[in-house]
Amino acid sequence: MKAWFITGASRGFGREWAIAALERGDHVAATARDTSTLDDLVEKYGDAVLPLQLDVTDRDACFAAVQQAHERLGRLDVVVNNAGHGQFGMIEEISEAEAREQLETNVFGALWVTQAALPFLREQGSGHILQVSSIGGISAFPNIGIYNASKWALEGFSQALAAEVAGFGIRVTLIEPGGFDTDWGGSSARHAAALPAYDEFRAQAAEERKTRVGAPGDPGASAAAVLRVVDAEHPPLRVFFGTAPLAVAEADYGRRIETWREWDDVSRLAQG
């Protein structure tokens, strides 16, 4: 039996993974801004689920929630940083408040929960941190640039973290989903005030995204994948969820390497 701590468990991946864990007999501390969204899980699974109200942008609240989960569950085996939202808007359109809110939730929220959990994981000499990133965490696309920035930051500190904590028996995995039928682009998404200058390009980018993403995946189907990851003896640092991301990554990284090689003489010139 594993003990899970999952942020953003009210819907999407967080909810599906919580259910998958509970169905197989694991215990889950499930967080949400509104814990009434977890009432049906409590009714069905009883004491196996611990609902916790949490706004991940509140650092003190993150530490308190993790402490409460550890006290109740006795240990923490899987910590899932899933809470987050998408911010749409061209870079010129993003307000300071929107930029800060995106980073506070998607980057700092994951950072606070990670920092809160690490002392417990180090003490027990084991644990697995799952950071829910995105294909937008390794590539970047028009109209979600500040979202990309948040996920690139998550990727960066998580890769460093993986090296820092491996000696304590702690594993880190960045889950990088493609397009899934979650609420990421729905009611939970935020939209910047549009500048007319970008209207034509915005429509073009939207069509390109449809082609790139294709048919959205079923979040429920991802449950089997996440259980495979957490049960692996040697889990990956990074894993795509969905069929579309690998082709995007291969094309993007291929272009990067090609450009670096093309300009290598300038790189060498810079060193003197």
User: Class, according to the CATH hierarchy?
Assistant: Alpha Beta
Strand adjacency order, main sheet: 3-2-1-4-6-7-9
Helix content: 40-55%
Low-pLDDT parts are: none
CA-CA gap between termini: 58 Å
Strand residue percentage: 15-25%
Rg from C-alpha positions?
19 Å
Series of H and E elements: EHEHEHEEHEHEEHHEHH
Architecture, CATH level 2? 3-Layer(aba) Sandwich
Extended strand count = 9
CATH topology: Rossmann fold
Question: How many separate structural domains?
Answer: 1
Tally of separate helices: 9
Main β-sheet description: 7 strands, parallel
CATH superfamily membership: NAD(P)-binding Rossmann-like Domain
What structural class is derived from the secondary structure elements? alpha/beta
Mean pLDDT: 94
**Shape from CA axes?**
globular
SSE topology:
Blueprint: E1 3-6, H1 12-23, E2 27-32, H2 39-45, E3 49-53, H3 59-73, E4 78-81, E5 87-88, H4 96-124, E6 127-132, H5 145-165, E7 170-177, E8 190-191, H6 199-213, H7 222-231, E9 238-241, H8 245-262, H9 264-271
Parallel strand pairs: 1-2, 1-4, 2-3, 4-6, 5-8, 6-7, 7-9
Helix pairs in contact: 1-7, 3-4, 4-5
Q: How does this model look, in words?
A:
The chain has 272 residues and is α/β, with parallel strands linked by helices. It has one domain: Rossmann fold. The chain has helices at 12-23, 39-45, 59-73, 96-124, 145-165, 199-213, 222-231, 245-262, 264-271; strands at residues 3-6, 27-32, 49-53, 78-81, 87-88, 127-132, 170-177, 190-191, 238-241. It has a 7-stranded parallel beta sheet, sandwiched between helices. Helix 1 (12-23) crosses helix 7 (222-231), helix 3 packs parallel to helix 4 (96-124) and helix 4 packs parallel to helix 5. The longest helix is centred in the middle third of the chain and has 29 residues, at 96-124. The N and C termini lie far apart (58 Å).
